[in-house]
Design goal:
about 180 residues, elongated, about 40% helix, about 15% strand, 4 helices
Length: about 180
């Protein structure tokens, strides 16, 4: 009895995992997290600005240093499609008068003027065979995954019905 439940669980786990065997087929949108830091607004940040001016320019900080209130942290995290997430941190330090004494951006922000490849329509003259190959490169693995999932589900269903008929002699499915 225990063997049957282990095998049933194993077959179910394998059939569910078949859906995740193909990577990068489904379109994923770019996901900006926290707040959006833009290179043009960070370029407007100058030493000597007041805290109100900085907040008007960049928005509310993600974190204010709890010990001194003189350090603000702006964090920008973005994940593009299947790439690794990229985090940018801007630290703004204020002096005792409440004006910006210095600020530091850990790495350069992406340039807004660059056209994103992910959002660009590319019009290039392609030969019909290149288009067909591109379609088949996506369609064949997806079709294979669907077929494998279908076969696994049918095997699981047959196994389940077999177990049900062996456990219950009065059970007879009507086909």
């Amino acid at each position: 009895m225990q063997f049957k439940s282990v095998v049933t669980t194993l077959i179910f786990a394998l059939s569910v995992s078949a859906c995740s065997s193909i990577n990068k087929v489904v379109y994923r949108i770019d996901v900006p997290q926290e707040m959006t830091l833009q290179a043009s607004t960070v370029a407007q940040l100058k030493t000597g600005m007041t805290a109100q001016q900085v907040q008007y320019l960049l928005g509310t900080p993600v974190l204010v240093d709890p010990y001194s209130n003189n350090t603000w942290y702006y964090v920008f995290l973005q994940q593009k499609a299947y790439e690794a997430p990229e985090q940018h941190t801007l630290v703004v330090n204020f002096d005792q008068k409440g004006t910006v004494s210095n600020f530091d951006l850990d790495k350069p922000l992406p340039n807004e003027e660059q056209v994103e490849v992910n959002n660009t329509i590319i019009n290039a003259p392609d030969a019909p065979t290149k288009k067909l190959v591109a379609i088949l490169e996506i369609a064949i693995p997806f079709s294979i995954s669907l077929i494998v999932t279908h076969i696994r589900f049918n095997l699981w269903l047959k196994f389940y019905l077999l177990m049900m008929t062996q456990n219950s002699p009065s059970y007879s499915p009507n086909y």
